[in-house]
Amino acid sequence: MYRIRFHGRGGQGMKTASRILGTACFIEGYEVQDAPRYGAERRGAPMFAYVRVSHTTIYERGVVPVPDLVVVADASLMAIPAAGLLTGCTPQTILIMPPLYAETPPLPFPGVHLTMDMDKIRETQISPSHLSSLWAGAAARLCGIVTETSLLQAVEEELVLLGEEAVAKNRQSALFGWRLMEAHTGCVTEKREPSSKAPPPEWIEFPWDPVSMSAPAIRSPETSRGVITGLWRSVRPVIDDARCGKCWWNCSVHCPDSAITVNKEGAPVIDYAHCKGCLICVEECPRRAITVRPEERDPEKGDPP
Amino acid sequence: MRRRLLTGNQAAAWGARLSGMEYAPFFPITPQTEIMETLAGWIDRGELTGRLVTLDSEHSMVTAAGAAAATGVRVFTATSSQGLLHAMEMIYTVPGWRAPFVMVNVSRGIASPITLEPDHNDIMAARDSGFLQIHCATCQEVLDAILLAYRIAEHPRVRLPVLVNMDGFYLSFTREPVIIPDAALATRFVGAFTDDDTQFTPRTPTSLGVAVLGGTPYSYFRYQAHQASLNALEIFEESAEEFHTLFNRRPLLIEEFYSEDADIVFVMIGSFATKAKNAVMELRAEGWKIGLVRPCLLRPLPIHAIFKALTGKKGVAVIDQNLAAGRGGVLHGEITGALYGRPGAPPTITSFIGGLGGRDISGAEFREMAVVTHHAMERGETPPPRLLFTQAELASVRKMQATALGSHALPTKTQKGEGHE
Asked: Of A127, B102, B161, B352, which sits with the fewest C-beta atoms within 10 Å of its C-beta?
């Protein structure tokens, strides 16, 4: 059985990528299981999707603990331990992702690390909204069990409701990803992981705790400050000080995350550690003094890494 | 007939579509909403006739479902978790109207603390309501169970609503191959909903669910509904036989997986039973005589089938994905109750609580449950119920508590019983 995990941010199309791969393998006659996993409010937040592909009935369910292939759509996810990108990776695991950021320390990854050439992709003018097909095409080639025809048919089946033009562009994108991985065709291998090799579970005698700690309450103030939701952002609002009328209240009051405060001079300041990039402030500013820029994380300016 | 990749939610929508659903009152809730969205999309694109209405709450939704079904309309609806609980007054009321319809519950743990991921406490809260309950382990079963459920619900000897249960995430959002039956065959199997008792028109008004005082009429009506539920066992078998003839798949009262010659048997319901199958095959490869028995129908409880499947076994490990506070696992109580005092009943029945709020159950844990049950058989002594919860999990909770409680946390001291003992 092949076990494949796709990691990305909500909105980057990794669920779609997993489904295109799943459908392509299904067309090839395999038994398939695919599913996304995310939490309550998730655009921009880390999510993952998994695919199992087998010659016989699949008797596994839930997340893939030990992947044969890990596809990562966004190198910035490496900074988020909770994203669990490398969980369960072995020396046999293949990892494909965009180039790591310059300041990233060497990955604690035991397997084969492949890098997607994002410059080449930019040259082709493939739109970011069609990248899910590209990752699916790349994953299909790496597994080596899907023909080009099945891949293209899968793109069409998954995206038919988006219309002909979108399907055509996604087919191009899928083929591009497929071709980029030509040198690595079929490098993903199937593994078995019998439970006999895993140590027995360390079950405990369940403790009794006093209600002061055994009810699900948060008594500490401002614990949400410790959750760097700014990492979910894919675009950033930037206040143009020259145009800002210092009305002080429009952007700060409408921010659903209380991430805009007003300083002593009456100027609004965005807390980028917690701004999720919803852009409501951009809409609300009467002087259009807030612009939208592509996200670029700069640790020297105090951004989360 | 087509075989396609469908999520459990899409399979449920297909079940409703192929059953000739006419009216679908809905209220959205994760992880059920995709069922409503799928049906709404079909209606919007003209692929499905029938009326989908969003109500102001699940309480109103189940009231509308029961009222429409009582007039002879084929009704489909779905909910989950807090939604099922919000509807609970009507969940217990509409079976008394003897209004047959099908409701899917997408299992999700219930508050508090609130969560999105699955366990069976929601559906167990409706266990004794008078709804029949079919528990599914695959997306195919979800679709098949809905067709079957209409047959049983509308049968003159039953005339009760049916809950079809699937696990959130593990089925609801998981795509796997599902055979979509031929529409004409499905129509033939489900048949028309024509019962003389549902010819409700303005000229022939009916009062449903009237008040009765004094226990006598009350006892009569309640026990009638109970009898009708028990009748469903026979109607289930009858309908499953016809289903098999038409579709070449047989819906089961209980699934028996390598259990016939087994000494030890896992008993569990729902999609986590798939994981138990994996464990059974691994353990069998090592020489264990082990199997799985999975009740698919929980209400009515197929007591005779369960007894037949478990009689002569040396050990049974019941795995509950629910927790009845102050009691333990609900399924454990159901199984021991079904077996007690019967000749050949297994002497050892261990109880495990696992998979609460979507917590995974690993292959190593199935193995350990088999080991614990084997030791209990040898010693002739059954251990107390066990929550599947590890040292590492407690450590992760302690870390959360340190953040959540901060200076409000009690002075740290090792709690009695914590850690290895």
From this structure: A127
pLDDT tens per residue, range B69-83 = 998 899 999 999 999
**Which one of 3.40.1010.10, 3.40.50.970, 2.60.40.10, 3.40.50.920 gives the CATH number of domain B255-387?**
3.40.50.920
Whole-number Å distance between alpha carbons of A153 and A170: 11
Kindly state the average pLDDT of the residues B299-319. Answer: 97
CB contact under 8 A, A205 and B417: yes
CATH 3.40.920.10 applies to domain A2-193: yes
- Please identify among residues 155-214 of chain A the ones whose CB lies closer than 8 Å to any CB of chain B: 193-196, 198-210, 212-213
Which has the higher per-residue pLDDT, B419 or B388?
Answer: B388
Residue with tokens 């084997």, as numbered in its chain: B374
Number of other residues whose CB lies within 10 A of the CB of residue B367: 22
- Two tokens, residue A95: 């990892």
Q: For chain B, which residues make up each domain, given as ranges? A: 2-196+212-247, 255-387
Question: Are A2-193 and A228-297 equal in CATH topology?
Answer: no
Q: What is the pLDDT of residues A133-152, one digit of tens each?
A: 999 999 999 999 999 999 99
CATH number of the structural domain A228-297 = 3.30.70.20
Does B255-387 match B2-196+212-247 at the fold level? yes
Cβ-Cβ contacts under 8 Å for B155 (sequence gap 6 or more): B231, B232, B235, B239
* Closest Cβ opposite residue A226 in set B286, B401, B403: B403
Cβ-based neighbours of B17, under 8 Å, separated by 6 or more: B39, B42, B48
Report how far apart, in Å, the C-alpha atoms of B410 and of each of A208, A217, B68, B112, B414 are: 14, 14, 55, 22, 11
Residue A84 confidence (pLDDT): 92
Distance, in Å, from the CA atom of A196 to the CA atom of B279, rounded to the nearest integer, reads 10
CATH number, span B2-196+212-247: 3.40.50.970
- Give percent above pLDDT 90 in chain A: 70
The pLDDT of B20-28, averaged and rounded, is: 98
Domain residue limits, chain A: 2-193, 228-297
